[in-house]
Amino acid sequence: MSVVLPPSARPGPAAPAPAPARGPRWPSRARRDATVRALAGAALWGSLLLVTCWWTTDRGVQDLGTWSSALTSLGRLSGLVASVLLLAQVVLMARVPVLEAAFGQDRLARVHRWVGFCSFDLVLAHVVTITWGYAAGELTQVPATAWDLVVDYPGVLLAAAGTAALVAVVVTSVKAARRRIRYESWHLIHLYAYLGVGLALPHQLWTGTEFTASPTRTVFWWTLWGAAAGAVLVWRIGLPVVRNARHRLRVAGVVTEAPGVVSVHLTGRDLDRMPVQAGQFLGFRFLDGPGWTRNHPYSLSAAPTRHGLRITVRTDGDGGRRLATVRPGTRVLVEGPYGRLSARARTSPKVTLIGAGVGITPLRALAEQLTYVPGQAVVLHRHRDRPLFAAEFDALAATRGLRVVNLPGQRRGEGSWLGSGTPPVDDVTALRWLVPDVAEHDVYVCGPAGWAQDVRAAVLGAGVPAERLHVEEFGW
What we know:
The protein folds into 3 domains: 27-243, no CATH class; 248-338, Elongation Factor Tu (Ef-tu), domain 3 (Beta Barrel); 346-474, Nucleotide-binding domain of ferredoxin-NADP reductase (FNR) module (Rossmann fold), CATH 3.40.50. It is built from 16 helices and 11 strands. The protein has helices at residues 25-57, 67-93, 97-103, 105-134, 142-152, 156-173, 175-178, 183-190, 192-207, 209-212, 215-247, 318-323, 360-369, 390-400, 427-434, 449-461; strands spanning 250-258, 261-267, 281-286, 296-299, 309-314, 332-338, 351-356, 377-383, 403-408, 442-448, 469-474.
Protein backbone atom coordinates (compact mmCIF):
# COMPACT_ATOMS: atom_id res chain seq x y z
CA MET A 1 0.00 0.00 0.00
CA SER A 2 0.99 3.64 -0.37
CA VAL A 3 0.88 5.82 2.72
CA VAL A 4 0.35 9.57 3.06
CA LEU A 5 1.11 10.83 6.55
CA PRO A 6 -1.23 13.35 8.16
CA PRO A 7 0.52 16.62 9.02
CA SER A 8 -0.25 16.10 12.68
CA ALA A 9 1.23 12.62 12.80
CA ARG A 10 2.60 11.73 16.22
CA PRO A 11 4.11 8.55 17.56
CA GLY A 12 1.35 6.05 18.24
CA PRO A 13 1.18 3.42 20.94
CA ALA A 14 3.09 0.24 20.22
CA ALA A 15 0.90 -2.66 19.22
CA PRO A 16 1.08 -5.77 21.40
CA ALA A 17 3.84 -8.04 20.16
CA PRO A 18 2.74 -11.37 18.71
CA ALA A 19 4.43 -14.52 19.90
CA PRO A 20 7.98 -14.33 18.57
CA ALA A 21 9.04 -16.40 15.64
CA ARG A 22 11.89 -18.84 16.11
CA GLY A 23 14.88 -16.93 17.34
CA PRO A 24 16.57 -18.19 20.51
CA ARG A 25 19.86 -18.31 18.58
CA TRP A 26 19.80 -14.60 17.68
CA PRO A 27 21.23 -13.26 20.97
CA SER A 28 23.96 -15.92 21.02
CA ARG A 29 24.95 -15.02 17.45
CA ALA A 30 25.09 -11.35 18.41
CA ARG A 31 27.29 -12.13 21.43
CA ARG A 32 29.58 -14.29 19.32
CA ASP A 33 29.99 -11.58 16.71
CA ALA A 34 30.64 -8.98 19.41
CA THR A 35 33.33 -11.26 20.86
CA VAL A 36 35.00 -11.60 17.45
CA ARG A 37 34.98 -7.82 17.00
CA ALA A 38 36.50 -7.33 20.46
CA LEU A 39 39.21 -9.94 19.86
CA ALA A 40 40.08 -8.49 16.46
CA GLY A 41 40.41 -5.01 17.94
CA ALA A 42 42.49 -6.32 20.84
CA ALA A 43 44.81 -8.17 18.43
CA LEU A 44 45.42 -5.02 16.40
CA TRP A 45 45.95 -2.69 19.36
CA GLY A 46 48.04 -5.34 21.15
CA SER A 47 50.34 -5.65 18.12
CA LEU A 48 50.74 -1.88 17.92
CA LEU A 49 51.54 -1.70 21.64
CA LEU A 50 54.05 -4.55 21.38
CA VAL A 51 56.09 -2.99 18.55
CA THR A 52 56.03 0.35 20.37
CA CYS A 53 57.38 -1.34 23.50
CA TRP A 54 60.15 -2.94 21.45
CA TRP A 55 61.02 0.47 20.00
CA THR A 56 61.17 1.86 23.53
CA THR A 57 63.47 -0.89 24.82
CA ASP A 58 65.76 -0.31 21.82
CA ARG A 59 66.55 3.22 23.08
CA GLY A 60 63.79 4.70 20.95
CA VAL A 61 63.04 7.39 23.55
CA GLN A 62 66.68 8.04 24.50
CA ASP A 63 67.58 8.60 20.85
CA LEU A 64 65.25 11.58 20.70
CA GLY A 65 68.00 13.70 22.29
CA THR A 66 69.64 14.96 19.08
CA TRP A 67 68.09 16.10 15.82
CA SER A 68 69.50 13.43 13.52
CA SER A 69 69.05 10.54 15.95
CA ALA A 70 65.51 11.74 16.73
CA LEU A 71 64.64 11.65 13.04
CA THR A 72 66.03 8.13 12.70
CA SER A 73 64.27 6.95 15.87
CA LEU A 74 60.91 8.37 14.79
CA GLY A 75 61.44 6.81 11.37
CA ARG A 76 61.92 3.42 13.02
CA LEU A 77 58.73 3.83 15.07
CA SER A 78 56.65 4.99 12.11
CA GLY A 79 57.95 2.06 10.07
CA LEU A 80 57.05 -0.47 12.78
CA VAL A 81 53.52 0.88 13.24
CA ALA A 82 53.02 1.22 9.47
CA SER A 83 54.06 -2.42 9.00
CA VAL A 84 51.43 -3.65 11.46
CA LEU A 85 48.74 -1.50 9.87
CA LEU A 86 49.66 -2.58 6.34
CA LEU A 87 49.34 -6.23 7.32
CA ALA A 88 46.05 -5.49 9.07
CA GLN A 89 44.89 -3.86 5.84
CA VAL A 90 45.71 -7.02 3.91
CA VAL A 91 43.69 -9.12 6.36
CA LEU A 92 40.77 -6.69 6.10
CA MET A 93 40.83 -7.11 2.30
CA ALA A 94 41.18 -10.89 2.49
CA ARG A 95 37.44 -11.59 2.99
CA VAL A 96 38.05 -13.74 6.08
CA PRO A 97 34.60 -15.27 6.78
CA VAL A 98 34.68 -14.85 10.55
CA LEU A 99 35.44 -11.13 10.16
CA GLU A 100 32.86 -10.70 7.38
CA ALA A 101 30.19 -12.26 9.59
CA ALA A 102 31.10 -10.25 12.68
CA PHE A 103 31.68 -6.82 11.14
CA GLY A 104 29.76 -6.77 7.88
CA GLN A 105 31.14 -5.41 4.62
CA ASP A 106 30.27 -1.77 5.27
CA ARG A 107 31.99 -1.64 8.64
CA LEU A 108 35.01 -3.54 7.33
CA ALA A 109 35.25 -1.07 4.45
CA ARG A 110 35.22 1.88 6.87
CA VAL A 111 37.88 0.29 9.08
CA HIS A 112 39.93 -0.65 6.01
CA ARG A 113 39.75 2.92 4.74
CA TRP A 114 40.83 4.38 8.10
CA VAL A 115 43.66 1.86 8.50
CA GLY A 116 44.73 2.42 4.90
CA PHE A 117 45.12 6.18 5.16
CA CYS A 118 46.86 5.91 8.56
CA SER A 119 49.32 3.30 7.29
CA PHE A 120 50.06 5.33 4.16
CA ASP A 121 50.72 8.50 6.18
CA LEU A 122 53.07 6.52 8.42
CA VAL A 123 54.86 5.01 5.41
CA LEU A 124 55.52 8.50 4.07
CA ALA A 125 56.64 9.65 7.53
CA HIS A 126 58.97 6.64 7.71
CA VAL A 127 60.53 7.38 4.32
CA VAL A 128 61.03 11.09 5.09
CA THR A 129 62.34 10.77 8.65
CA ILE A 130 64.64 7.79 8.03
CA THR A 131 66.16 9.43 4.94
CA TRP A 132 66.54 12.77 6.71
CA GLY A 133 68.04 11.08 9.75
CA TYR A 134 70.53 9.10 7.65
CA ALA A 135 71.46 12.43 6.07
CA ALA A 136 72.62 13.53 9.56
CA GLY A 137 69.71 15.94 9.78
CA GLU A 138 70.99 17.98 6.82
CA LEU A 139 68.06 18.76 4.54
CA THR A 140 70.33 19.50 1.59
CA GLN A 141 71.79 15.98 1.81
CA VAL A 142 68.42 14.23 1.66
CA PRO A 143 68.31 13.66 -2.16
CA ALA A 144 71.79 12.15 -2.26
CA THR A 145 71.07 10.01 0.82
CA ALA A 146 67.81 8.79 -0.69
CA TRP A 147 69.68 7.71 -3.82
CA ASP A 148 72.31 5.88 -1.77
CA LEU A 149 69.62 4.06 0.20
CA VAL A 150 67.84 2.91 -2.94
CA VAL A 151 71.03 1.80 -4.69
CA ASP A 152 73.13 0.38 -1.85
CA TYR A 153 70.75 -0.98 0.81
CA PRO A 154 69.23 -4.45 0.22
CA GLY A 155 65.52 -4.39 -0.54
CA VAL A 156 65.11 -0.60 -0.47
CA LEU A 157 64.60 -0.41 -4.24
CA LEU A 158 61.78 -2.93 -3.93
CA ALA A 159 60.35 -0.93 -1.02
CA ALA A 160 60.40 2.22 -3.17
CA ALA A 161 58.43 0.39 -5.87
CA GLY A 162 56.01 -0.82 -3.22
CA THR A 163 55.54 2.73 -1.95
CA ALA A 164 54.77 3.88 -5.50
CA ALA A 165 52.09 1.17 -5.74
CA LEU A 166 50.58 2.33 -2.43
CA VAL A 167 50.56 5.93 -3.69
CA ALA A 168 48.47 4.85 -6.71
CA VAL A 169 46.02 3.02 -4.43
CA VAL A 170 45.63 5.91 -1.98
CA VAL A 171 45.31 8.62 -4.64
CA THR A 172 42.50 6.73 -6.39
CA SER A 173 40.79 6.06 -3.04
CA VAL A 174 40.21 9.75 -2.35
CA LYS A 175 36.53 10.55 -2.91
CA ALA A 176 37.20 13.22 -5.51
CA ALA A 177 39.27 10.77 -7.55
CA ARG A 178 36.82 7.88 -7.14
CA ARG A 179 34.06 9.97 -8.69
CA ARG A 180 36.14 10.35 -11.87
CA ILE A 181 36.95 6.70 -12.54
CA ARG A 182 34.89 3.59 -13.11
CA TYR A 183 34.45 1.05 -10.35
CA GLU A 184 36.17 -1.58 -12.50
CA SER A 185 39.27 0.61 -12.94
CA TRP A 186 39.35 1.50 -9.26
CA HIS A 187 39.05 -2.17 -8.27
CA LEU A 188 41.97 -3.14 -10.53
CA ILE A 189 44.20 -0.35 -9.19
CA HIS A 190 43.23 -1.25 -5.64
CA LEU A 191 44.74 -4.71 -6.08
CA TYR A 192 48.15 -3.02 -6.25
CA ALA A 193 47.91 -2.70 -2.46
CA TYR A 194 48.93 -6.37 -2.27
CA LEU A 195 51.95 -5.62 -4.45
CA GLY A 196 52.89 -2.61 -2.34
CA VAL A 197 52.81 -4.58 0.90
CA GLY A 198 54.58 -7.57 -0.63
CA LEU A 199 57.49 -5.53 -1.97
CA ALA A 200 58.22 -4.17 1.51
CA LEU A 201 59.04 -7.63 2.93
CA PRO A 202 62.66 -7.98 1.70
CA HIS A 203 63.52 -4.46 2.90
CA GLN A 204 62.17 -5.15 6.39
CA LEU A 205 63.89 -8.50 6.78
CA TRP A 206 67.25 -7.48 5.30
CA THR A 207 67.76 -4.03 6.84
CA GLY A 208 65.26 -3.77 9.72
CA THR A 209 67.04 -4.77 12.94
CA GLU A 210 63.75 -4.45 14.84
CA PHE A 211 62.52 -7.45 12.84
CA THR A 212 65.50 -9.71 13.53
CA ALA A 213 66.93 -8.52 16.87
CA SER A 214 65.62 -11.57 18.76
CA PRO A 215 63.91 -14.90 18.02
CA THR A 216 60.73 -13.58 19.60
CA ARG A 217 60.56 -10.65 17.21
CA THR A 218 61.41 -12.80 14.23
CA VAL A 219 58.64 -15.22 15.09
CA PHE A 220 56.20 -12.34 15.67
CA TRP A 221 56.84 -10.72 12.30
CA TRP A 222 56.92 -13.96 10.33
CA THR A 223 53.66 -14.99 11.99
CA LEU A 224 52.03 -11.72 10.97
CA TRP A 225 53.30 -12.02 7.42
CA GLY A 226 52.30 -15.68 7.23
CA ALA A 227 48.80 -14.97 8.55
CA ALA A 228 48.27 -12.13 6.06
CA ALA A 229 49.58 -14.12 3.09
CA GLY A 230 47.67 -17.21 4.18
CA ALA A 231 44.42 -15.26 4.48
CA VAL A 232 44.78 -13.99 0.91
CA LEU A 233 45.72 -17.38 -0.52
CA VAL A 234 42.92 -19.24 1.28
CA TRP A 235 40.01 -16.80 1.23
CA ARG A 236 40.63 -14.61 -1.82
CA ILE A 237 42.04 -17.30 -4.13
CA GLY A 238 41.61 -20.85 -2.85
CA LEU A 239 38.02 -20.78 -1.61
CA PRO A 240 36.57 -19.09 -4.75
CA VAL A 241 38.39 -21.60 -6.96
CA VAL A 242 36.95 -24.54 -4.99
CA ARG A 243 33.42 -23.14 -4.91
CA ASN A 244 33.33 -22.30 -8.60
CA ALA A 245 34.62 -25.74 -9.50
CA ARG A 246 31.91 -27.28 -7.37
CA HIS A 247 28.85 -25.17 -8.19
CA ARG A 248 29.54 -24.26 -11.85
CA LEU A 249 27.06 -21.40 -12.07
CA ARG A 250 25.47 -20.50 -15.42
CA VAL A 251 22.93 -17.96 -16.61
CA ALA A 252 19.48 -19.54 -16.82
CA GLY A 253 17.65 -16.46 -18.13
CA VAL A 254 17.26 -12.68 -18.04
CA VAL A 255 13.93 -11.01 -17.14
CA THR A 256 13.05 -7.32 -17.43
CA GLU A 257 11.55 -6.17 -14.11
CA ALA A 258 11.02 -2.49 -14.99
CA PRO A 259 12.46 0.06 -17.43
CA GLY A 260 16.20 -0.01 -16.84
CA VAL A 261 16.09 -2.93 -14.39
CA VAL A 262 16.69 -6.62 -15.15
CA SER A 263 16.86 -9.82 -13.12
CA VAL A 264 19.42 -12.49 -13.98
CA HIS A 265 18.52 -16.03 -12.96
CA LEU A 266 21.41 -18.42 -12.29
CA THR A 267 21.53 -22.16 -11.97
CA GLY A 268 24.27 -24.60 -11.00
CA ARG A 269 25.20 -27.73 -9.08
CA ASP A 270 24.80 -28.42 -5.34
CA LEU A 271 23.43 -24.94 -4.73
CA ASP A 272 21.79 -26.13 -1.51
CA ARG A 273 25.36 -26.46 -0.18
CA MET A 274 26.44 -22.95 -1.16
CA PRO A 275 26.71 -21.00 2.15
CA VAL A 276 24.84 -17.91 0.97
CA GLN A 277 21.93 -16.25 2.76
CA ALA A 278 19.25 -13.84 1.63
CA GLY A 279 20.49 -10.27 1.94
CA GLN A 280 24.11 -11.09 1.13
CA PHE A 281 25.97 -10.21 -2.05
CA LEU A 282 28.56 -11.92 -4.20
CA GLY A 283 31.16 -10.73 -6.68
CA PHE A 284 30.19 -11.87 -10.20
CA ARG A 285 32.23 -12.35 -13.35
CA PHE A 286 30.25 -13.28 -16.46
CA LEU A 287 32.40 -15.17 -18.97
CA ASP A 288 30.78 -13.70 -22.08
CA GLY A 289 33.70 -12.02 -23.76
CA PRO A 290 36.23 -9.20 -23.25
CA GLY A 291 35.98 -7.63 -19.81
CA TRP A 292 35.01 -10.87 -18.08
CA THR A 293 37.74 -10.31 -15.48
CA ARG A 294 35.84 -7.37 -13.98
CA ASN A 295 34.24 -8.23 -10.66
CA HIS A 296 30.78 -6.74 -10.01
CA PRO A 297 29.17 -6.94 -6.55
CA TYR A 298 25.43 -7.75 -6.72
CA SER A 299 23.01 -8.69 -3.94
CA LEU A 300 20.60 -11.58 -4.21
CA SER A 301 17.06 -10.36 -4.89
CA ALA A 302 15.39 -13.64 -3.92
CA ALA A 303 16.08 -16.19 -1.24
CA PRO A 304 18.60 -18.76 -2.54
CA THR A 305 17.26 -22.22 -3.30
CA ARG A 306 18.69 -25.55 -4.40
CA HIS A 307 17.46 -24.72 -7.90
CA GLY A 308 19.07 -21.33 -8.41
CA LEU A 309 19.95 -17.74 -7.47
CA ARG A 310 18.62 -14.40 -8.68
CA ILE A 311 20.20 -10.96 -8.84
CA THR A 312 18.49 -7.75 -9.96
CA VAL A 313 20.47 -4.79 -11.33
CA ARG A 314 20.04 -1.46 -13.02
CA THR A 315 21.21 -1.31 -16.62
CA ASP A 316 22.62 2.23 -16.54
CA GLY A 317 26.20 1.16 -15.72
CA ASP A 318 28.71 -0.78 -17.78
CA GLY A 319 28.05 -4.00 -15.91
CA GLY A 320 24.28 -3.58 -15.94
CA ARG A 321 24.11 -2.88 -19.67
CA ARG A 322 26.14 -6.00 -20.27
CA LEU A 323 23.83 -8.15 -18.16
CA ALA A 324 20.78 -6.97 -20.07
CA THR A 325 22.05 -8.91 -23.09
CA VAL A 326 23.88 -11.83 -21.47
CA ARG A 327 22.91 -15.14 -23.03
CA PRO A 328 21.51 -18.17 -21.22
CA GLY A 329 24.21 -20.75 -20.66
CA THR A 330 26.94 -18.16 -20.03
CA ARG A 331 29.35 -19.40 -17.38
CA VAL A 332 29.58 -17.30 -14.19
CA LEU A 333 32.39 -17.08 -11.63
CA VAL A 334 31.57 -15.84 -8.14
CA GLU A 335 33.35 -14.71 -4.99
CA GLY A 336 31.64 -14.64 -1.66
CA PRO A 337 29.10 -14.52 -0.15
CA TYR A 338 29.80 -11.27 1.66
CA GLY A 339 27.89 -8.88 3.89
CA ARG A 340 26.09 -8.98 7.21
CA LEU A 341 22.72 -7.79 5.92
CA SER A 342 21.25 -11.21 6.66
CA ALA A 343 19.46 -13.25 9.28
CA ARG A 344 22.78 -13.57 11.12
CA ALA A 345 22.58 -9.95 12.28
CA ARG A 346 19.06 -10.36 13.67
CA THR A 347 18.49 -9.92 17.42
CA SER A 348 14.70 -9.40 17.65
CA PRO A 349 11.59 -11.22 16.36
CA LYS A 350 10.37 -7.92 14.86
CA VAL A 351 11.98 -6.53 11.69
CA THR A 352 11.68 -3.41 9.56
CA LEU A 353 13.18 -3.41 6.06
CA ILE A 354 13.84 0.03 4.51
CA GLY A 355 15.04 0.28 0.92
CA ALA A 356 15.33 2.86 -1.85
CA GLY A 357 14.99 2.05 -5.54
CA VAL A 358 17.00 -0.98 -6.54
CA GLY A 359 18.29 -1.09 -2.95
CA ILE A 360 15.13 -3.03 -2.20
CA THR A 361 16.66 -6.13 -3.82
CA PRO A 362 18.43 -7.66 -0.78
CA LEU A 363 15.46 -6.70 1.39
CA ARG A 364 13.12 -8.51 -1.00
CA ALA A 365 15.21 -11.65 -0.43
CA LEU A 366 15.21 -11.09 3.33
CA ALA A 367 11.43 -10.67 3.40
CA GLU A 368 11.17 -14.11 1.84
CA GLN A 369 13.69 -15.96 4.01
CA LEU A 370 13.36 -14.40 7.46
CA THR A 371 11.11 -16.09 9.99
CA TYR A 372 8.21 -13.98 11.27
CA VAL A 373 4.47 -14.11 11.89
CA PRO A 374 1.86 -11.54 10.80
CA GLY A 375 2.51 -8.21 12.49
CA GLN A 376 6.23 -8.78 13.03
CA ALA A 377 7.66 -7.57 9.71
CA VAL A 378 7.23 -4.39 7.66
CA VAL A 379 8.82 -3.13 4.43
CA LEU A 380 9.21 0.59 3.73
CA HIS A 381 10.02 1.06 0.05
CA ARG A 382 10.87 4.52 -1.25
CA HIS A 383 10.80 4.72 -5.05
CA ARG A 384 10.41 7.34 -7.77
CA ASP A 385 8.16 5.53 -10.24
CA ARG A 386 6.56 2.14 -9.83
CA PRO A 387 7.91 -0.10 -7.07
CA LEU A 388 10.03 -3.13 -7.86
CA PHE A 389 8.67 -6.61 -7.06
CA ALA A 390 5.19 -5.26 -6.35
CA ALA A 391 3.50 -8.58 -7.17
CA GLU A 392 6.02 -10.55 -5.15
CA PHE A 393 5.58 -8.32 -2.11
CA ASP A 394 1.81 -8.62 -2.48
CA ALA A 395 2.18 -12.40 -2.43
CA LEU A 396 4.30 -12.24 0.73
CA ALA A 397 1.73 -9.95 2.33
CA ALA A 398 -1.07 -12.39 1.50
CA THR A 399 0.73 -15.59 2.52
CA ARG A 400 2.94 -14.48 5.40
CA GLY A 401 1.41 -11.31 6.79
CA LEU A 402 4.22 -8.98 5.66
CA ARG A 403 3.17 -5.31 5.80
CA VAL A 404 4.37 -3.39 2.74
CA VAL A 405 4.42 0.43 2.70
CA ASN A 406 5.31 2.23 -0.54
CA LEU A 407 6.73 5.75 -0.23
CA PRO A 408 6.66 7.17 -3.78
CA GLY A 409 8.29 10.31 -5.10
CA GLN A 410 11.74 11.84 -5.10
CA ARG A 411 13.41 12.75 -1.80
CA ARG A 412 11.55 15.66 -0.33
CA GLY A 413 14.71 17.56 0.55
CA GLU A 414 18.29 17.49 1.75
CA GLY A 415 18.69 15.44 4.91
CA SER A 416 15.42 13.54 4.54
CA TRP A 417 15.00 9.95 3.38
CA LEU A 418 11.25 10.29 2.71
CA GLY A 419 9.49 10.95 -0.59
CA SER A 420 8.22 14.30 -1.81
CA GLY A 421 4.60 13.29 -1.13
CA THR A 422 5.21 13.11 2.61
CA PRO A 423 3.66 15.92 4.69
CA PRO A 424 6.02 18.32 6.50
CA VAL A 425 6.72 16.32 9.64
CA ASP A 426 10.22 15.42 10.72
CA ASP A 427 11.68 12.07 9.70
CA VAL A 428 11.68 10.60 13.21
CA THR A 429 8.00 11.39 13.72
CA ALA A 430 7.17 9.95 10.32
CA LEU A 431 9.07 6.74 11.07
CA ARG A 432 7.34 6.31 14.41
CA TRP A 433 3.98 6.84 12.77
CA LEU A 434 4.72 4.29 10.08
CA VAL A 435 6.13 1.75 12.55
CA PRO A 436 4.93 2.68 16.06
CA ASP A 437 7.01 0.00 17.81
CA VAL A 438 10.12 0.50 15.65
CA ALA A 439 12.33 0.74 18.75
CA GLU A 440 11.67 -2.97 19.31
CA HIS A 441 12.68 -3.94 15.76
CA ASP A 442 15.81 -4.97 13.97
CA VAL A 443 16.05 -2.45 11.12
CA TYR A 444 17.70 -3.41 7.82
CA VAL A 445 18.55 -0.56 5.44
CA CYS A 446 19.88 -0.64 1.87
CA GLY A 447 20.25 2.22 -0.60
CA PRO A 448 22.53 5.04 -1.79
CA ALA A 449 25.09 6.20 0.77
CA GLY A 450 23.65 9.66 1.46
CA TRP A 451 20.09 8.40 1.71
CA ALA A 452 21.14 5.50 3.95
CA GLN A 453 22.86 7.92 6.32
CA ASP A 454 19.63 9.93 6.62
CA VAL A 455 17.72 6.74 7.40
CA ARG A 456 20.34 5.83 9.99
CA ALA A 457 19.85 9.16 11.76
CA ALA A 458 16.05 8.80 11.79
CA VAL A 459 16.16 5.18 13.01
CA LEU A 460 18.54 5.98 15.87
CA GLY A 461 16.47 9.05 16.69
CA ALA A 462 13.38 6.84 16.95
CA GLY A 463 15.03 4.86 19.72
CA VAL A 464 16.38 1.82 17.86
CA PRO A 465 19.59 0.61 19.57
CA ALA A 466 22.66 0.86 17.33
CA GLU A 467 23.24 -2.90 17.50
CA ARG A 468 19.81 -3.47 15.90
CA LEU A 469 20.50 -1.23 12.92
CA HIS A 470 22.03 -3.04 9.92
CA VAL A 471 22.96 -0.85 6.94
CA GLU A 472 24.35 -1.60 3.51
CA GLU A 473 25.15 1.39 1.31
CA PHE A 474 25.69 1.70 -2.42
CA GLY A 475 29.19 3.01 -2.93
CA TRP A 476 32.84 2.07 -3.12
